[in-house]
Amino acid sequence: MRIVKKAGTAVLGLSGDAASFLKSGATPAPHRFLIFGQGRTGSTLLETLLDSHPEITCQGEILAWRRIFPEGFLDRSSRGHGTKAYGCHVKPHHHARLVQGINDLKGFAHRMHERGWLIVHLWRENTLEHVLSGHFARAAKSYRFTGDLKPPPLELTLDPERIIEKISIRQGFLEEERAALAGLPVHEIQYERDLKDPAGRKVSMAALQARLGVAPRNLQTPLKKSVQRSFSELVTNADDVLARLEASPFAHFAKAVR
C-alpha cells in the first residue's frame, strides 16, 4: 500500500532542486494545494486519503529539506504529474521557518495564494491530545501504523509541567498560523470534526474534492489510528496531569478527556 504515488516521490536536498528544474517546461496541475499545519494534526491521514484519488498527487513534506528558492521549487514540483490536483504538506514553523528560513509566514502564505495555490489549514481542537499523540509516537518509535502493524500497549508517565509548556507552544503555533492566513480564502480541516469522525470525514473529503476540481471518490487510507485508548488508560499519572491542567488556562482540554 503506497503512502504517496511513486512517480511523485521527492528527491532530497540540493539534488531535489536541480531535478525540479528538469520539470520547468512540464504542464502544472490545474489545481494546487498546500496542507498548512503542524505535525500530529492528521496530516499523513489527509495526505493518504487525497493520494488514493487517481486525479490527485500528494507528495508529503517536500520542504523538510532546504531548498534554494522554496516557492519556485513548489511550483516546479507541481508539474508533470498528469493529475488534476497536486499538493504537499508544509509545517509552518518547522518547515517554512526553521528549515527554509521563512520568518514571514503571512507573506509566504499570501504569495503562494497569489501563485494559485489553495491553502488547506489543518489543525486540532484538543491540544492536550495533540501533545499526547507526539509523546505516544516517540515512545512507540513510529509515527504511523499500516498493514499488520499494531500500536503497542504503551503506558506513559507524563510531567504535568512539561505538558503545560508543550500545550502553550502548540497553541502559540496555531495562533501564528491563523494570523498568517487571515484574509485568505482558506479551506479549513479540523482533525476532530473532519478526519477523526467517520461521518465528518465523508462530508469534508467530498467538499475538498469539489474544491480541488476532481470527480468525487470514496477515499481510502492504509493508516490505523495510533492512540486507541483513553487518556486515563494510556497515562499512568492521568489524575495528576489533569488536576494540573484544570488549574491552568487549559482546563477545557482536561474536561474533554475526563
Describe the structure.
- The longest helix is centred in the middle third of the chain and has 22 residues.
- 37% of the residues are buried.
- It is built from twelve helices and seven strands.
- A five-stranded parallel sheet has the order 2-3-1-4-6, with helices on both faces. It has a two-stranded antiparallel sheet with strand order 5-7.
- With 258 residues, it is of the alpha/beta class.
- 47% of the residues lie in helices and 12% in strands.
- Helix 6 packs across helix 7.
- Strand 2, helix 3 and strand 3 form a beta-alpha-beta unit.
- The chain has one domain: Rossmann fold.
Comma- or semicolon-separated keywords:
7 strands, alpha/beta, disordered N terminus, Rossmann fold, 12 helices, 258 residues
Radius of gyration: 19 Å
- Classify the helix fraction into a percent range: 40-55%
Which strand order do you get reading across the main beta sheet?
Answer: 2-3-1-4-6
Per CATH, the architecture is 3-Layer(aba) Sandwich
Low-confidence stretches: 1-11
> What is the average per-residue confidence, as pLDDT, rounded to a whole number?
90
Total number of strands: 7
Structural class call reads alpha/beta
**Coarse morphology:** globular
CATH topology: Rossmann fold
Question: In sequence order, what are the helices and strands, one letter per element?
Answer: HEHEHEHHEHEHEHHEHHH
Total number of distinct structural domains = 1
- CA(first)-CA(last) distance: 36 Å
